Structure formats: structure tokens, C-alpha cells
DNA sequence: ATGAAAGCGCTAACAA
DNA sequence: TTGTTAGCGCTTTCAT
């Protein structure tokens, strides 16, 4: 006879076990000890449940208990080293707490963000990590109305705790590393605009980029005085766009600038795509850094300093906020690391050690 | 006065709107048209719901309708280019169907896989994509018992449809590309074992690796006759391990082999970590290929052929199986691409052009 | 040590 | 065109 297609419920088990539904419930949810169910009964129920292929219906439990056992995280995209590391940490932390992680990307689209948060609220998630939100205020309002505990990550929000990368510090480190490697300003060879550092990529409207841009300008100003507007080219995250912008910049300058701060890994992908079309001597006089890390990018034909953000640190602190019941709009900053190039320097850079 | 902390229900709305709960339900679920609720009533209800910050409780709806609106996907890890691309596609396809995606990684751990599938079944997901399962048979049994529609992706399972990369074809392409670039066998310089190609990384026990290993052996045999056992070093996915194994191999051979097929991106990371410790002339006589793609790895100091798997194609076909109601254990193969190096060849490789 | 019964928030017959 | 009612599967008092 074919197995009943319907999933068994506690009532099926209760009938088979000759016990009441509540006894079955307790035996199966682990609460049988405190309900003073005899170990024999509990064990028997568990066995029958197992052999019937019974699975607790977590929707029903959630409905009854008014807690779903789900934790949510929204973030811009999955296919990105930084964010996917966060997913990995998020899961680990969720599991530790016996919660089921629900991670959804929102493609940096405010409307999609709102729709997604609404969906997650509707599934009664118990708390929410909001990573890199483009419109935190709208989300804030929704979470607040739903009484949903939430923490902002990577980009701060108002009205709830935020855990963010110390972008200022990271960008300062990276800018200094670039300046240190830049050919001395006075050699006259690449004079004028080419002697100044440029920042390429990212979106000036987002908080993280804005912080980095400020730090970049501040550090560069220590050496060169205030940088012209044109030295910051926040052209977004698309590789193709960054590639085009860099080509255009080279055209204007008559070559690569002496320093280049690339503001995201995807923009860097575009940069590299352009650089490899040039003869090696073309980028010999350029110091390059990238905000964000990729193990292979650290091994390119030319040395690249990279900033590695601490994804796990961010997530760990975010969960700590939730656990601690923090409600205030505190902002925690987590320091990123500067990663030196692992490339073997050949040619013009080898004397720079 | 502070907003009521409790979330409003249809009963709250119904009271405020002077309509019954079922009218509210229909007005809010979009079914009001066919329930012949006047547009005026529906609109009014919707307005009140909006201003009350009402969100449908999807747990309750799911319980009642016996469908949760969730689709699940399990996969080995998030922080991997291939898998995170799948997440991105999976979400897009889920959204198109009005479902909420739940993506969980299981760390290539059979026990974790089982626990996760159990959890997802308990949340009453409507279907499940099983990516790269280490123990498909156990999962098969669970899904079957729960009457859960599922499709295997990347690694085939028995008892349900599978959509997998054409590993044989991909590995053949890659092996041929490597052989074509290998220094001619007869030059005597790197004679004996060093003149043969090696495969490094991956797990011989998993289906994909096994396929690739077979293809590698078959193609190599066309030129060199059957390869010794030792030429396949399936040492897993950890970069550090691959690095050590490669170092040991170089010790044994007195240098790098003439051809190297690296069986995963993570193993390749280890390989690169070792290679850059060598002087450039050390790897001048080696042809390198990697199964899996990374945009930066394609730009390294030495040319690397890479196989790019079609993540979106896999997911699209998997959803097509679900949509089509396919139940049989058919196996669909999706072809990957061979990506030529974009590096500018300098030195020993430049004449190979 | 266990059972009976109410109800979580929603939907779907069935009535009206 | 709308309201009433009976559950979906589970947990949890309150009895016993």
C-alpha cells in the first residue's frame, strides 16, 4: 500500500501512540521533562514519530507561539565576496541560536528593499539585519511599526543600532599606502594633473563611499593640498563603466595618474580589464589600491594594496547588539585590514620593495 | 499615545472598517474581485490596513492554505563565486514566481544537510533545489517522505530530476587547452614525470570531481597513454592544502610539471600562493588551467585557462523542471565555457601567443 | 503523569 | 455583495 501522501500530524501520532495530542506535542518539542511525561511515553512517541516520517509543522508552531524561529538578513547582492562572507557568518550565528536564516538580496533597489522587508515581516521573522540599505529610513519605519528588532550593517541607519566598517580609517590606510608608492611629485615626468591621485568607483550618495571619499581627500590634501573635484570619479559599481571611465581619464591625462584608489572590487575588475590592454610600462608609474579584497587580485602583475573588510566581525557585533537588547541608535565601527600585495615585484616596482 | 505593540490582525481591521474578517481577508489577499466584494469596500479596507501598518501573517495563511510561499535551496557554501551566482539566479526565479527564497549552506556536511532539509520541510517549503549534495540518497528519502518536490543541481541524485554541469565536456576542453600549451614532450629538458600533466584539488569521491578526473585522464591518455595514479592529487578544496601538495609535488619532480589542471578555485588560490613564491622562470614551462572562473585569476602574471560554469543556466533549467512537474530522475547537462587568459603574455609564453 | 479544550491569524465553504 | 463558521497543526493553561 502506498504511503499516505498527507504529512502526519501530532494527531496521527497521538492515535498511534495511544496518547493525547498534548502529550505528543510535549514529547516531540523537548518539553516533556518539565511537563512530567514519563520517559517511557516520551520515547515511545518519539519512535513512532520517527518511523512515520513526522516533521513538526513550524508554521503552526510559529503561529501558536507567536515566534517563527526565522532570522532575516537583507543585503545588496549575493555574488560579491564581501556580502557572501557575511551570509556565511550570518548562518553560523543564526544556527548557534537555533534560528533558521533567511537571506535575501535587494539589488540596491529601494522598492525591492521595502517589498522584501515587508515579506520578511509577514513571515514573522524574529529579527533582521539590514546590510547596505539604500533607503534605511523607509525600512526603519516598517520595522518600527511591526515591532521588529533590527540592526543596520555596513551602512548606518537612524533609530536602531548600526555596525559598520570603519571606512574612514580603511580609506586613510589605503590612501597612505598609495601615496607612499606614488612616484615622487617633483620628478617632472608626469607633471600636472597626472601627478595627483584619483579615486574611481562607488556611489558618492552612499554612506560608505562618502566616508572613503572624504578620507581620501583629507589624506591627499596633506600632501597635495585640496584635490580638484575631478579627482573623484564615483561612477558606480559596474566593471564596464569603471573601465570606460578609466580609459577616458587616461585620454585626458595622457596616461595613467600617479595614484589610483579604486573604490570597489567590481570597479577594480573594470580597471584591471583596462590596464591589461596597456603595455606594462604604462602602469609602471602608478600606485594602485583597491577598497575590498580578492585573493587573486592580490596576485596581479602589478602590486595592489587592498582593504579587507571584516565581514565576520560585523555580523558578530550585529548579533551581539540583538542579543544585548540594544535599541538605541548606537554606531559600532569595526576596523578593516590593509593587505599588502603578494605579487613578486618585477620591473619598476622592484626597487620600491 | 504609543502605538499598540501588538501587530494588527484582520479582526482589528475588520472592526475599524465595519466589515467582516472574511471580507477583509479577501480585500487584502487580492481575491476580492472573484469574491464579488465591491471595489469601494475593498479600497476602504486596504486604506485602513495600510494606515494601521497591517501585514498579512504569512504563517497563518500558509497554515490555512497548506502552502507556505517559500522555496528552498541548499548548497555547500555561500562564499564562493559559483554558488553565490546561483543564489542570485535562484532569487530572481523565485521572485518571478512570487515565492520567498530561503537559501541555506550546509558546509559539505551530510549531517548538516539532513538537519537543514528537515528544517526546510518543517517550514513547509513548496519545493527545494539541492545543490552539490554530499549525500543525495538520504535527502531523497526525506523529500520523498514529505512529498516535497525537489531537483538536484550540480551533483545528480537518484529519484528526482538533476541539472548538472557537463563536467566531462568542460574538463576535456580544459585538458586540451592545457596540453596544447604544454612544452613539447620530446625536448628532454623536463623529462620523465615532469613532462606529464597533473590534476590537483577536489574530492575524488564527489561526482563532479570524478567526472573531471575521468575526462582529464582520457584526454591525457590520447597523447601520453594512461597516466599514473600519482598524477591525480584530489586533495580537497582548502587553499592551504593545495599549496602544500603542490610544493611537495615540485619537490618530488624537481620543479613544476609541464601541465597543471587545478580542480577548483579555492585549490587554485593555494596554487597561486605557491607559484608566486617561485622565480618567474620556474613556471615558464608549465601550462595551467583551472576548473572554475574568477575574473582576476584570468589576469594573473601567467596565462590560465579557466572553465566558467553556467550558474544561471543551471538554476533556470532546475526551475523549468519544477514548473514542468517533472518527477522522473532525468539528468540535464548544461555546458560550461572555456575562458582564455586575458593576461598579456610576457616572457616565455609570449611566443606561444 | 496525562488529557481536554481553547485559540494563534488566516481562508474557504456555505449561508444569507 | 457580504457575514458566519469551521478548521489548518500546534502549544498551553487548566483539570484530573
CATH architecture verdict of the largest domain in chain A: 3-Layer(aba) Sandwich
Q: Report the portion of residues of chain A in β strands.
A: 15-25%
In CATH, the topology of the largest domain in chain A is named Rossmann fold
Estimate nothing, just give the exact number of structural domains of chain A.
3
Q: Could you spell the SSE succession of chain A in H and E letters?
A: HHHHEHEHEHEEHEHEHEHEEHEE
List the helices and strands and how they pair.
2 copies of one chain form a homodimer.
Chain A: H1 10-17, H2 21-29, H3 39-52, H4 58-65, E1 70-75, H5 81-96, E2 100-105, H6 110-122, E3 127-131, H7 136-146, E4 149-153, E5 162-165, H8 167-181, E6 197-200, H9 207-224, E7 232-233, H10 239-253, E8 259-262, H11 265-275, E9 287-291, E10 304-308, H12 311-323, E11 331-334, E12 337-339
Parallel strand pairs in A: 1-2, 1-3, 3-4, 4-5, 5-11, 6-7, 6-8, 8-9, 9-10
Antiparallel strand pairs in A: 10-12
Helix pairs in contact in A: 1-2, 1-3, 2-3, 5-12, 6-7, 8-9, 10-11
Chain A binds a DNA duplex (16 and 16 nucleotides) through residues 9-11, 19-23, 25-26, 29, 31, 35-38, 41, 56-66.
Amino acid at each position: 500500500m502506498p504511503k499516505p501522501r498527507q504529512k502526519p500530524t501530532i494527531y496521527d501520532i497521538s492515535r498511534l501512540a495511544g496518547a493525547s495530542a498534548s502529550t505528543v506535542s510535549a514529547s516531540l518539542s523537548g518539553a516533556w521533562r518539565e511537563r512530567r511525561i514519563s520517559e517511557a511515553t516520551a520515547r515511545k512517541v518519539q519512535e513512532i514519530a520517527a518511523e512515520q516520517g513526522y516533521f513538526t509543522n513550524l508554521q503552526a508552531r510559529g503561529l501558536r507561539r507567536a515566534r517563527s524561529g526565522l532570522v532575516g538578513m537583507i543585503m545588496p547582492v549575493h555574488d560579491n565576496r564581501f556580502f557572501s562572507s557575511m551570509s556565511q557568518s550570518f548562518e553560523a550565528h543564526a544556527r548557534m541560536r537555533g534560528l533558521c536564516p533567511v537571506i535575501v538580496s535587494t539589488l540596491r533597489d529601494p522598492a525591492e528593499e521595502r517589498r522584501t522587508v515587508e515579506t520578511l515581516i509577514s513571515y514573522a521573522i524574529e529579527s533582521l539585519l539590514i546590510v547596505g540599505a539604500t533607503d534605511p529610513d523607509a525600512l526603519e519605519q516598517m520595522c518600527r511599526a511591526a515591532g521588529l528588532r533590527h540592526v543596520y550593517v555596513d551602512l548606518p541607519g537612524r533609530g536602531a543600532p548600526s555596525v559598520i566598517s570603519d571606512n574612514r580609517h580603511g580609506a586613510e590606510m589605503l590612501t597612505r599606502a598609495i601615496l607612499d608608492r606614488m612616484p615622487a611629485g617633483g620628478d617632472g615626468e608626469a607633471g600636472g594633473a597626472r601627478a595627483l591621485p584619483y579615486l574611481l568607483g562607488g556611489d558618492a550618495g552612499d554612506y560608505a563611499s562618502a566616508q572613503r571619499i572624504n578620507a581620501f581627500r583629507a589624506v591627499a590634501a596633506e600632501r597635495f593640498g585640496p584635490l580638484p573635484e575631478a579627482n573623484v570619479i564615483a561612477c558606480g559599481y559596474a566593471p564596464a563603466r569603471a573601465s570606460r571611465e578609466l580609459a577616458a581619464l587616461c585620454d585626458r591625462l595622457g596616461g595613467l595618474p600617479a595614484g589610483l584608489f579604486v573604490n570597489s572590487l567590481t570597479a577594480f575588475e573594470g580597471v584591471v580589464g583596462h590596464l591589461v590592454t596597456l603595455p606594462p610600462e604604462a602602469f609602471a608609474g602608478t600606485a594602485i589600491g583597491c577598497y575590498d579584497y580578492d585573493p587573486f587580485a592580490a596576485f596581479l602583475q602589478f602590486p595592489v594594496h587592498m582593504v579587507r573588510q571584516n565581514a565576520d566581525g560585523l555580523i558578530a557585533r550585529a548579533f551581539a547588539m540583538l542579543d544585548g537588547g540594544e535599541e538605541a541608535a548606537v554606531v559600532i565601527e569595526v576596523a578593516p585590514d590593509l593587505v599588502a600585495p603578494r605579487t613578486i615585484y618585477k620591473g619598476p616596482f622592484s626597487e620600491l620593495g
